[in-house]
Amino acid sequence: MGSETTFLSNAGYEQTLAFTQRELEKLPPRGLKGWCEQHKLNYHTVVGLKNNTLNYPAFHLVDEILTVLGYKVTMVKYTMQIGRGEKPRTTASYTVTKPDP
User: Fold this and answer.
1) What does the alpha-carbon distance between residue 68 and residue 77 come to, in Å, rounded to a whole number?
2) Which residues, including other chains, have CB under 8 Å from residue 61's CB and lie 6 or more apart?
3) pLDDT for 32
4) The whole model's pTM is what?
């Protein structure tokens, strides 16, 4: 079994989102729509994620995009309650690796 490079380890959603946005920026200009179609991803949602305009966390979309880009993603999604009587908050922790060539 080959070795791999770790890019993120137990990173929160915001850090993993920023990493995903940087990776999306590396795609060829004007190539995002075709890339989304090729990988059966919703173009408008991916653009929203890339531009940080989604009104909700897209835990699984981040996972899916990084997987399509060749990364191995381990995501642990969990819900926590910050204070008594407050609405529970869902978040995720990610480990992102890529096999070494």
Assistant:
1) 20
2) 41, 45, 46, 49
3) 93
4) 0.86
In the chain, the N- to C-terminal Cα span, in Å, equals 12
* Tokens coding 34: 């075709």
How far is it, in rounded angstroms, from Cα 24 to Cα 41?
13
Higher pLDDT, 77 or 42: 42
pLDDT digits (tens, 9 = 90+) for 29-67: 789 999 999 999 999 999 999 999 999 999 999 999 999
Total domains in the fold of the chain: 1
- Name residue 9's amino acid: S
**Structural domain boundaries enclosing 13:** 4-99
C-alpha distance from residue 70 to each of 4, 15, 53, 87, 91 (Å): 12, 18, 25, 36, 23
